[in-house]
Every structure is written in structure tokens, then in C-alpha cells.
């Protein structure tokens, strides 16, 4: 008798526990649904045009992006995407042609360029591109500052690509006769004979491009220049992509600057821009050549910058593209806004 009672009590308790647990999970589920709805509401609010005051919209249309492209880093493919999108997304693309392809602007031109780029409202929003070293607008007394973006490539790949580009040109402008046209020496032979065209000092280009307009930037092997380049890369650039990961670069840009790059990822995937402009008859260097080049200080320093950029880019990319566990992209919103 007593035992039956005890059993009955135990089962009752069990049932109660099960019911409580059931309701608790149900409440948690509803709460989560509610939170998701709240997120969606906030998202749709921020996406709807009416929600933003007009002044903010105009701010977005004031944006100036500068892409100070390094030669032979896949920049033509990327710029091609911008040229193809500019009409659809309603922004302007301008090429900065610096005479004789100098990467350094004279001081008077730096000043004029900075004033012009920030004040020329008729062409805004605009993307400027050109082969010029990073220009720090802090020095130039402008009231607003542009957004810098860039791409970086494995230093030896870039040098080899440039070496053959000077000799064979590319499929972009196949009939243009290049500086070293007709020279049949391979990169391996060049390294073996210690010719100036494959001198590791020629790799000193991405460090000075990111370092800027100071004299020290252009001294091959300068430790200060390398540190400055790293510093600029993380403090003055919105985004620096990796040539080997062009698609991800475009995707991150689309998510961050949709005013310019809306639809860019899909466009890049479906167009043949990814194959545009390949250096003709490029011969991969031998293991021996690679080992020899990798012993040079310049390669080591340039590679250090590349690895630094790669790690930073992957970090940025992971934070952006990795969805939360429940497959909701990260958002943020304001709350507790006081006084009402
Ligand atoms: C820059 O301008 C010069 C002179 O007009 C022209 O010859 C050259 O092709 C231009 N550079 C590029 C990359 O278009
Ligand atoms: C900027 O430079 C361009 C080309 O020289 C010129 O047409 C334009 O008027 C300039 N804009 C400003 C605001 O100075
Ligand atoms: C690539 O694009 C160009 C220009 O849009 C076009 O003329 C060419 O046929 C395309 N090639 C392929 C393989 O799709």
C-alpha cells in the first residue's frame, strides 16, 4: 500500500518535471523567435530608405574611394569590375594618370590632388585608381578624407609576372610592344646570370606603396618602411585584399560598401573578369630560383608584409562571412536611447 503511494508520488513528480521542462523549452523557443523577429524588424528599418535622415544618405553619396593599385597584382581585373558596375550603381570611376608612371606625386600635386578629390562634388561618389604610393590625407589639410582600398600579391609571383609582362605583354593589349619585347631570356636564366631585371631589389614595391611618400619608404630593405607599411595597412586602409583571393575581396567590399559594389560578387562570378589580363608566355621559376630569391632580405621583408596582410584579411573575412550558429549574420542596433 505504502509502496504504491510512493510510486504514484514519484510518477506525479516525474510528470510535473517533464511538463515544466517542456514549457521552459517552449518559452525559450518563443523568446528566440521573438528576438529573431525583433532583429528582422530592426534590419528592415535600417534598410528602408525612409528610416535614414536624408543627410545621412547624402553622406554616403559623398564617398570617395581611392584604390592606389600596385602594378601586376591583378588590379586590372578588379578595376574592370568597377567600370562595369559604375553605370548600374551610379558612381564614377576615374583613372589618375601620373606622367611617366611615377609612383610619387610632387608636393604641389599632392596638395592639389587632395583638395580636388575631396571638393569635387560633381563626380561623387567616386572611385579613383592609379599607380601611386599611399598618400596620407592627414598632412594635406582637407576637411574630409577618402577611403583607401588595395590589393597585395605574393612578392615573387608579382616580380615574375612583371618580368614576363615587360617581354611578352598580356592578353589585354596584345599588340602593344613592351619595353623588353623580343628578349627571350627566362626568369631562371636571368637569376642565374645575376641580371638587374630579376634583382630582388625590384621586389621592393609593395612595401613602399603601402609606406607612402616619405624618402625612407623607397630605400630597399628599410625596416622603418616595413613597419610604416604595416601601420598604414591597418590604420588607413578600409580593406586590403589578397590577389589570390579576389572573389572574397569583392564579397567583403560588397558587404561593406554596397553603394559602390552592390551585385559585384555575382557579376564577378558570372563574367569572365577573373581571367582578364594574363601575362603571356609566363614560365614558372624553378625550385632553385625560388630558393635563391627567398634568401634575399628584400624578399623576406616583402613577404613579411604579404603575410601580415594575409592574416589581417583572413581575420576580417572570417568575422564578416562566418554566420552565427543560428545562421543569422551579425547586426547591431541602438537601444536605451535617452532622453525620449
Ligand atoms: C597617361 O597619359 C599619357 C599621356 O596622355 C598616355 O600616353 C598614357 O597611355 C596614359 N596612361 C595610361 C595607363 O593610360
Ligand atoms: C578637379 O580637377 C578637375 C580636372 O582638372 C577639374 O575639372 C575640376 O573642376 C576640379 N574640381 C575642383 C573642385 O577643384
Ligand atoms: C569575355 O568577355 C568579353 C567581353 O565581354 C567577350 O567578348 C568574350 O566573348 C567573353 N569570353 C568568354 C569566354 O566568355
Automatic annotation (TrEMBL):
It comes from Chrysodeixis includens. GO terms for molecular function: heparan sulfate 2-sulfotransferase activity. Keywords: Disulfide bond, Glycoprotein, Golgi apparatus, Membrane, Signal-anchor, Transferase, Transmembrane, Transmembrane helix. SUPFAM superfamilies: P-loop containing nucleoside triphosphate hydrolases. PANTHER family: HEPARAN SULFATE 2-O-SULFOTRANSFERASE (PTHR12129), HEPARAN SULFATE 2-O-SULFOTRANSFERASE 1 (PTHR12129:SF17). Homotrimer. The keyword Transmembrane helix applies. The keyword Manganese does not apply. The chain crosses the membrane at residues 7-25. This is Heparin sulfate O-sulfotransferase. Its main location: Golgi. Belongs to the sulfotransferase 3 family. GO terms for cellular component: Golgi membrane. It is found in: Golgi apparatus membrane. It is a single-pass type II membrane protein. One of its GO terms (biological process) is heparan sulfate proteoglycan biosynthetic process.
Amino acid at each position: 500500500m505504502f509502496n504504491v503511494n510512493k510510486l504514484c508520488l514519484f510518477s506525479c513528480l516525474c510528470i510535473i518535471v517533464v511538463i515544466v521542462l517542456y514549457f521552459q523549452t517552449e518559452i525559450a523557443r518563443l523568446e528566440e523567435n521573438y528576438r529573431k523577429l525583433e532583429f528582422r524588424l530592426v534590419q528592415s528599418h535600417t534598410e528602408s530608405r525612409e528610416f535614414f535622415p536624408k543627410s545621412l544618405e547624402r553622406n554616403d553619396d559623398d564617398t570617395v574611394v581611392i584604390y592606389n593599385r600596385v602594378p601586376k597584382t591583378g588590379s586590372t581585373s578588379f578595376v574592370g569590375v568597377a567600370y562595369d558596375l559604375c553605370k548600374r550603381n551610379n558612381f564614377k570611376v576615374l583613372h589618375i594618370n601620373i606622367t611617366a608612371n611615377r609612383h610619387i606625386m610632387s608636393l604641389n600635386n599632392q596638395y592639389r590632388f587632395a583638395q580636388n578629390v575631396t571638393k569635387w562634388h560633381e563626380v561623387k561618389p567616386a572611385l579613383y585608381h592609379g599607380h601611386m604610393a599611399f598618400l596620407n590625407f592627414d598632412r594635406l589639410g582637407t576637411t574630409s578624407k577618402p577611403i583607401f582600398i588595395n590589393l597585395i600579391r605574393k612578392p615573387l609571383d608579382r616580380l615574375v609576372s612583371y618580368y614576363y609582362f615587360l617581354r611578352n605583354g598580356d592578353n589585354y593589349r596584345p599588340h602593344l610592344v613592351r619595353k623588353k619585347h623580343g628578349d627571350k631570356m627566362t626568369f631562371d636564366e636571368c637569376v642565374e646570370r645575376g641580371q638587374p631585371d630579376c634583382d630582388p631589389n625590384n621586389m621592393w614595391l609593395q612595401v613602399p606603396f603601402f609606406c607612402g611618400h616619405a624618402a625612407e619608404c623607397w630605400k630597399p630593405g628599410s625596416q622603418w618602411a616595413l613597419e610604416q607599411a604595416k601601420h598604414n595597412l591597418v590604420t588607413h586602409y578600409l580593406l586590403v585584399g589578397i590577389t589570390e583571393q579576389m572573389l572574397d575581396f569583392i564579397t567583403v567590399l560588397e558587404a561593406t560598401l554596397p553603394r559602390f559594389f552592390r551585385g559585384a560578387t555575382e557579376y564577378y562570378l558570372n563574367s569572365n573578369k577573373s581571367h582578364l589580363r594574363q601575362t603571356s608566355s609566363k614560365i614558372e621559376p624553378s625550385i632553385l630560383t625560388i630558393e635563391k630569391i627567398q634568401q634575399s632580405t628584400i624578399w623576406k621583408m616583402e613577404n613579411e608584409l604579404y603575410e601580415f596582410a594575409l592574416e589581417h584579411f583572413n581575420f576580417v573575412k572570417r568575422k564578416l562571412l562566418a554566420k552565427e550558429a543560428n545562421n543569422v549574420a551579425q547586426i547591431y542596433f541602438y537601444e536605451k536611447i535617452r532622453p525620449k
